[in-house]
Amino acid sequence: MPELPEVEITRRRLAPLLLGRRVVEVRTTRDGYFFLTPPRELRRRLLGRRFETLERRGKYLVAGLNGGERLLLHLGMTGRLFSGGVPDAHTHLRLRFEDAGPELLFRDVRKFGKVQVLAAGESSPRLARLGPDALAASPAQLHTAGRRRRAPVKTLLLDQSVLAGVGNIYADEALFLAGLSPRRPACRLSRQDCVLLARALKRVLRRAISDGAGGRYRDEGRVYGRAGEPCRRCRTPIRRVVIGQRSSHYCPRCQR
DNA sequence: ATTCCAACCTGATAGC
DNA sequence: TGCTATCAGGTTGGAA
Fold it and tell me: For the ranges A53-57, A120-124, A202-206, A211-215, which has the lowest average pLDDT?
């Protein structure tokens, strides 16, 4: 589920819960793919720490702790961070706080999510790889990035090193809004195309954030998940194709 | 350097 | 009902 808007919404919701609070208990499920920092070490390094900042980098959440460590969280495909719910077998991380407020729960059915503690000053290759935030997409940067790529523009948008935060749904929606076919080779985007695309990205992402997109955007989407249904603009059936191993939805008439 | 593809997981749903 | 195949909004690392 989580792309930039969902992660940003999570960040805003979580900030009041986390900031200023001290961790007094860390509970996890067993070690595995989910934990970049193994549970034992995670416990040791979080215990007694206080949350000072909570930022979003692309689809990552980065929490700053007193002492300079940072807690890196990625929601993967099915991850959800919340408080006040009932933990179950898929709740892999639970943080309890000193002031006895509600616990922080990290539930992730598919376990594509990630948890990692970075030491003070430690850099993260994952974060270092990220391009500029998608909310700050600029036409010039898109044009430069696309210039010598034969890959489709859809693939370009999903590349987090080009633009951080765009996922499959919002890529499709932004391309529809920009009137661009997802199959258009990135190197064949004109400057004007890039202007439209940057504008469309911002519009789609901002709108989803202000809507409080708890997946609601999906129902309001113009193309995503609407294969075979009529385009909301011209009634042409929406087409679904696979691009870069991801499903892509577009209107063959409105998008060139 | 770019592109492709398998791998990491589990659950929901469609079809037989 | 039950089984199998397919699909799902993400990212990495290694091969071509």
Answer: A211-215
